[in-house]
Write a structure and sequence with these properties.
Helices cover 44% and strands 15% of the residues. By secondary structure, the protein is an alpha/beta fold. The protein has 5 domains: 196 residues, P-loop containing nucleotide triphosphate hydrolases (Rossmann fold, 3-Layer(aba) Sandwich); 140 residues, P-loop containing nucleotide triphosphate hydrolases (Rossmann fold, 3-Layer(aba) Sandwich), CATH 3.40.50.300; 104 residues, Arc Repressor Mutant, subunit A, CATH 1.10.10; 75 residues; 64 residues, Winged helix-like DNA-binding domain superfamily/Winged helix DNA-binding domain (Arc Repressor Mutant, subunit A, Orthogonal Bundle). It starts with a helix and ends with a strand.
Length: 634
């Protein structure tokens, strides 16, 4: 490992590896197929970047997260390590140029999105690229029974045919024992495979879950009590804005973030939060991937996620600097009931799937027998309104159509503006002489973008307008006029969600979806949902242990700092116990009550003491607590 440590010191500035990093790197350098399960912020990228740097050739990194790809490529370049990336939205010419650089240039990393693996152009160059390691990020996406299945991941195994002796390193932050098995099988791991799982213990992170009728008051109380940067995760875009406005009205610096904002807005909000210009970001789960901000003190889930995988990953963005931090989950009875109903919405009947598929093809004006390889702008709200359909059901059907490899749906699609000159240099010179109005723009393009005569170059209109000292709106007009003259081919940036058809349209009644697979996914989803509800309502067991056990880490000690551990350590006098237990039995004898209702009724006692008594009464079978957390005296 001497060489690996030297590389770590030279490029990353660290003297030693974190726990398990060295063992994983050693396994990869021994050419073993390796599965690494490391929590968010645990340093997964170093596990493939260091061994790739110590061997001749290039590391192929498969990742579904475009923003993360771009960040890692930029970070590597800033360290003096040449890296490339290929993702959706790039033109044929741009992809071809990148692949030529990977084959013939001095590059060490090529990041690709999984759907690129089966394209003819990629496969054509694959045989001449010297690959020393295949790293599969977000490896849980390969499992049909996991929480984020992506069919394009199943194509990764085909790389074995091209590189039979190249090891595969599969990385994920969280995977149940079933998903771990699926990853190894689907990636065709060889006999000398190794698996590593970092402990799920986060000694500095205090987990808690509160059942509440008023979430706003609790959120304000938390953020006023705990200073520093924070994230508030919400389920809907509308909710992110409402929460940010509520916090701002109460004197807490806050903003909102979701996938529906332009890339310019998202980048600005993200940078302001990272640089502490704004304290709290209220966001959907579109926020956080690849963001390295170690000093987050609080992560609050204003709504309950539908899987512990999501919750653990998002909550884990708190306290990466090792200092005391808090992960708080707010919920109520109605929300848990709604989660239960969500199963039917997420897995609709075959008839509903066919109905929405037909409506989608009609909405996009796609004739029968066509569509394969075509991409369409897609406005989900307009589609839902035009066809009088429920947006949640549409989303669920689009996911199923993706999993059945009929379409891909990219909600956060982004394609930059591009410009290419369509005439030669001599003709361009003659045009400039007769149209001096465009001289500054043409010269600005030529000076800013190499190869602009050979292929479409990605441009940034804001930077170009500053460079040529022309207002942005005037620049856009001049670019469109040059396009009208057939001097350039100008394509403005795209940020609208995209639907890409992998197969030609068929008649809705002939559409085949595997009901068997859908049923298995439904059962797996129900299992994840039950675990999430259990995490919310369990008032006895250490929350760190609840998470660890779910992910097959059964060696965790009680954390001592979560709400359940603190409640279990509370001292309750005999008089207090008798008063509280009598009141609980009386109040819950006729009607089942939630814990928040009991707390309101027993406001003269501290919540942690009431919780302590509730746990005792439940263990002695004197009260019953159902799956929704409702308490009834027996």
């Amino acid at each position: 490992m001497t060489n690996a440590v030297a590389i770590l010191k030279k490029y990353w500035g660290y003297d030693a590896f974190r726990p398990l990093q060295q063992e994983i790197i050693d396994s990869v350098l021994s050419c073993n197929d390796t599965l690494a399960i490391m929590p968010t912020g645990g340093g997964k990228s170093i596990c493939f970047q260091v061994p790739a740097m110590s061997k001749e050739g290039l590391c192929l990194v498969v990742s579904p997260l475009i923003a993360l790809m771009k960040d890692q490529v930029l970070n590597l370049k800033n360290k003096g390590i040449p890296a490339l990336s290929i993702y959706s939205g790039m033109s044929f010419t741009e992809v071809e140029k990148t692949l030529k650089n990977a084959a013939y240039g001095n590059f060490k990393f090529l990041y690709v999105s999984p759907e690129r693996l089966k394209t003819e152009l990629f496969l054509e160059y694959l045989s001449i690229i010297k690959i020393n390691l295949i790293a599969v990020d977000e490896a849980h996406c390969i499992s049909q029974w996991g929480y984020d299945f992506r069919p394009s991941y199943l194509r990764i195994a085909a790389l074995r045919e091209y590189f039979p002796n190249v090891p595969i390193l599969a990385l994920t932050a969280s995977a149940t024992i079933e998903v771990q098995k699926d990853i190894r099988e689907k990636l065709l791991f060889k006999k000398n495979q190794q698996s590593f799982q970092q402990s799920f213990e986060r000694a500095n992170l205090s987990y808690s879950a509160f059942e509440l009728s008023s979430k706003q008051n609790k959120l304000l109380a938390i953020l006023k009590k705990v200073a520093g940067s924070g994230i508030v995760y919400c389920k809907t875009r509308k909710r992110t804005k409402e929460v940010a406005e509520m916090l701002s009205l109460n004197g807490i610096s806050a903003d909102y973030y979701h996938a529906g904002l332009s890339s310019e807005e998202r980048n600005k909000k993200q940078e302001d939060w990272i640089n502490n210009k704004m304290r709290i970001i209220a966001c959907t789960n579109a926020f956080g991937m690849g963001i390295d901000k170690p000093d987050v003190r609080t992560v609050v889930h204003y709504d309950v996620p539908d899987a512990l995988e999501n919750y653990y990953q998002e909550a884990g963005r708190a306290g990466r600097d090792g200092k005391k931090s808090y992960a708080v989950l707010l919920f109520n009875e109605a929300e848990l009931n709604q989660l239960e109903k969500q199963v039917q919405i997420k897995f609709p009947s075959k008839e509903i799937i066919r109905k929405i598929y037909g409506a989608l093809c009609n909405f996009l004006q796609l004739p029968s027998g066509s569509g394969e390889g075509k991409s369409f702008d897609f406005d989900l709200n307009t589609f839902a309104r035009n066809f009088k359909l429920d947006a949640y059901t549409i989303n669920s059907v689009l996911k199923i159509l993706e999993q059945e490899e009929l379409i891909t749906y990219s909600e956060q699609f982004f394609s930059p503006s591009t410009v290419e000159f369509t005439i030669d240099k001599q003709a361009l010179h003659l045009f400039e002489q007769s149209h001096p109005k465009y001289d500054e723009v043409i010269k600005g393009l030529l000076r800013s973008y190499d190869g602009i005569f050979d292929f479409p170059c990605a441009i940034n209109e804001d930077q170009l307008s500053k460079f040529v000292r022309i207002k942005r709106e005037n620049l856009l007009q001049l670019l469109n006029e040059l396009k009208a003259y057939n001097i350039i081919d100008y394509t403005p940036q795209k940020e609208k969600p995209q639907i890409y058809f992998l197969q030609n349209r068929v008649r809705a009644e002939d559409l085949f979806v595997s009901e068997k697979n859908i049923l298995k996914r439904k059962e797996a989803y129900q299992k994840r949902l039950n675990a999430m509800i259990q995490f919310c309502t369990n008032q006895n067991k250490c929350r760190s242990q609840l998470i660890g056990n779910y992910f097959n880490d059964n060696n965790l000690r009680e954390c001592g700092v979560c709400d359940n551990c603190l409640a279990n350590n509370v001292k309750v006098s005999n008089d207090e116990f008798n008063s509280i237990s009598s009141a609980i039995k009386k109040l819950s004898s006729e009607t089942a009550l939630s814990s928040s209702q009991l707390f309101q009724q027993l406001s003269n006692f501290k919540e942690n003491k009431i919780r302590k008594v509730l746990i005792f009464l439940q263990e002695e079978n004197l009260i019953n607590v159902n799956k929704q957390g409702l308490i009834k005296s027996l």
